[in-house]
Design a protein that fits this description.
Radius of gyration: 18 Å
Order of helices and strands: EEEHEEHHEHE
Structural class: alpha/beta
Number of strands: 7
Strand order of the largest sheet: 5-4-3-6-7
Helix content: 25-40%
Shape: globular
Number of helices: 4
Distance between the termini: 38 Å
């Protein structure tokens, strides 16, 4: 039901009423980060990275959704900031595929933290209102991150953003 309002709900915690701060109904637009491993280790499997990302853009992303494209090897790079234009995302993806990766190492945990909480130049997803998600396409190997697996798990848990992964 999309005509429900937050005033129609009462949220109780331990018997005490709590304010409803965020309320969405129906199929709200999504803000998603496509986080792609782009190290030279995956060069023989480049199609395994580019094809799922392209399929997501063309078949799953709705016209009202916004997506950003971030690649990573030893550090994350914003290839395309949030946009609702599929053509811009496709062009960014094609440009990435034409520029061969240089480093063999990958910083998966740092890239995931970057996508979620950002840094001084990039805000990340954790502060975005509404439906958010990360689609991670990666080998799942981390060889160079500054944070470890447990710290990355805490970042994900604190961000409250679902992370979906496609392993290559």
């Amino acid at each position: 039901y999309t005509d429900l309002k937050k005033e129609q709900f009462k949220l109780l915690e331990d018997g005490f009423e709590q304010p409803v701060t965020i309320f969405t109904g129906g199929e709200a637009p999504m803000n998603i980060v496509l986080l792609l491993e782009y190290s030279s280790r995956i060069l023989p499997l480049l199609g395994e990275v580019v094809y799922p990302a392209g399929m997501f853009i063309s078949q799953i992303l709705n016209p009202e959704d916004y997506a950003a494209l971030i690649s990573f090897d030893i550090k994350p790079r914003v290839v395309s900031d949030f946009t609702g234009h599929r053509s811009r995302l496709f062009n960014s993806l094609r440009g990435l595929a034409k520029d061969p990766p240089f480093y063999r190492e990958s910083s998966l945990y740092d890239a995931l933290a970057f996508a979620l909480v950002g840094n001084m130049d990039y805000a990340g997803l954790s502060g975005v209102q509404g439906r958010t998600a990360v689609l991670l396409i990666s080998t799942g190997r981390d060889s160079l991150s500054k944070i470890n697996f447990d710290e990355a798990r805490k970042v994900v848990a604190n961000a409250g953003v679902p992370v979906y992964s496609i392993g290559i």
